[in-house]
Amino acid sequence: MVSTKFKNYLFEEYGIKFKNETLLEEAFTHSSYVNEHPKESVGNYEKLEFLGDAVLELAVSDYLYRHFPSLNEGQLTRLRSNIVRTEGFSGFAIECGFPAEINLGHGEEKTGARERKTLLEDVFEAFNGALFLDQGMDAVQKFLKLTVYPLIDSGEFTDSRDYKTDLQELLQVNGAIKIEYQVLEESKLPSNFKVALLVEGKKISEGSGHNKKAAEQVAAKLALIKYQEK
User: Fold this and answer.
1) 125 is in an annotated binding site
2) Is 206 annotated in some ligand binding site?
3) Computed over its alpha carbons, how large is the radius of gyration of the chain?
4) Topology (CATH) of 4-153
5) Separation CA 165–CA 194 (nearest Å)
6) Average pLDDT taken over every residue of the chain
7) Given 25, 101, 108, 125, which residue is catalytic?
8) Annotated binding residue at 185?
9) Is 125 a catalytic residue?
């Protein structure tokens, strides 16, 4: 079941303490676990996932509408699709430490389901569905403000380009060049990283993001713009 350590982590990192811990347990319980433990009075996450999917779509839509007034309907729709796709939500589940807490049956465990992106997406949706039932939309928005929204603001979902790879290919076309990403700042609440991008020891750009990967992508994007303007 969900560990005490993880419950403490939720409170310390995100200020979340469930009033009804049964909802939290269900959000992390796969149907395979329920089938193998019929005597345990806990349900699986499927109904919470259904609710969480709708809650997240509404929350993200509301955020995009309020914070990106210059985008038209089509642009907002594409941006939302990039955010709520499987890769997006599964990535958030990993960043929040969800995989280790999922209750799986032995068969699913052996097939590597704990790392399956679609399952991690389901759990992220179920968690937000459980949080919505336990504490309402304000609590969901607070959680997303610490996890999802910083990445939206950093431009993580504006397109699917891998700027780090693009930059590497551009700079190393004539041979190896040393490219480094150094962490300058790191804070927990809200979670944020700031990195510097160095090429052959010279700082070219800086980037900020919810995690190190996102910050590096922003720094690489800015560096690409600089090099392409030359």
Assistant:
1) yes
2) no
3) 20
4) Ribonuclease iii, N-terminal Endonuclease Domain; Chain A (1.10.1520)
5) 19
6) 89
7) 125
8) no
9) yes
